[in-house]
């Protein structure tokens, strides 16, 4: 981490150039922070992470060539001490816990960007977790009760990979296109689709597609 004479170096990973530009402007406006690199996808981000060794990596959930949760896992596997913060428009209640489990230190919603992002960056740079009070309370309540609410959204029961496949189905991707994007076999994607049908009580592929499209429309 940087000192007063050496700003903390931030790598921004987001598939939207305008978002990266906005984040970079806010970060570079702070005397103790600086942007050392930008990436739009997983492969580019991993390459830059290796060459730049940033103090903190900001990661969106939806990336050019995959899912931010998978990138967090990849970076954590290479360096368990890596500091990572998710900055995303996706629902925090669905993704925050997944991000923490994958190795991130915090989660900040893009809708709160103007007020919260710099605080979130400084908090995670210090090695502390950053979550909204609402999500922190939810996580503490789950730990205290040590069980799953009866009325839990079935989407919450999906694995990270299943949720990624479900989202791509909702974006109209075919099985072969999903397999190519995730670098998995068509058979593996078919297996994920079958598990999704069972977990979400979809009678057939058409109903699964309808559920996925509706979910994407509601969640982005």
Overall spatial form? globular
Low-pLDDT runs of 5+ residues are none
**How many angstroms does the end-to-end distance come to?**
34 Å
Radius of gyration equals 18 Å
What is the N-to-C succession of helices and strands?
A: EHEHEEEHEHEHHHHHH
Secondary structure: helix percent: 40-55%
The largest sheet, given as strand count, sense and whether it forms a barrel, is: 5 strands, parallel
Task: Tally the helices.
Answer: 10
Counted beta strands: 7
Mean pLDDT: 87
**Structural class of the secondary elements?**
alpha/beta
Strand portion: 5-15%
Please give the order of strands in the largest beta sheet: 2-1-3-6-7
* Oligomeric state as shown: single chain
Task: Describe the overall structure.
This protein starts with 7 loop residues before the first strand and ends with a helix. A 5-stranded parallel β-sheet has the order 2-1-3-6-7, with helices on both faces. Strands 4-5 form a two-stranded antiparallel sheet. 54% of the residues lie in helices and 14% in strands. A hairpin with a 2-residue loop joins β4 and β5. The protein is an alpha/beta fold. It is globular, with a radius of gyration of 18 Å. It has helices at 17-28, 42-52, 68-78, 92-102, 113-125, 133-145, 160-170, 175-182, 186-199, 205-219, and strands at residues 8-13, 33-39, 56-59, 62-63, 66-67, 84-88, 106-109. The mean pLDDT is 87.
């Amino acid at each position: 981490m940087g000192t007063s004479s050496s700003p903390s170096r931030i790598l921004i990973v987001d598939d939207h150039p305008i978002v990266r530009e906005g984040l970079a402007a806010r970060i570079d406006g702070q005397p103790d922070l600086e942007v050392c690199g930008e990436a739009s996808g997983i492969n580019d981000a991993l390459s830059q992470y290796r060459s730049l060794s940033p103090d903190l990596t900001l990661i969106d959930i939806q990336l050019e060539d995959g899912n931010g949760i998978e990138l967090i896992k990849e970076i954590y596997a290479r360096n368990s001490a890596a500091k990572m913060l998710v900055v995303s428009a996706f629902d925090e209640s669905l993704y925050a816990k997944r991000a923490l489990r994958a190795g991130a230190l915090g989660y900040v919603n893009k809708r709160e960007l103007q007020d919260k992002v710099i605080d979130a960056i400084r908090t995670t740079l210090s090695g502390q977790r950053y979550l909204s009070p609402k999500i922190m309370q939810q996580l503490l309540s789950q730990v205290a009760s040590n069980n799953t609410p009866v009325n839990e959204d079935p989407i919450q029961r999906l694995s990270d990979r299943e949720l990624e496949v479900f989202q791509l189905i909702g974006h109209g991707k075919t099985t072969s296109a999903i397999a190519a994007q995730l670098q998995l076999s068509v058979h593996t994607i078919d297996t994920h689709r079958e598990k999704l049908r069972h977990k979400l009580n979809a009678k057939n592929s058409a109903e699964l597609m309808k559920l996925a499209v509706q979910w994407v429309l509601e969640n982005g």
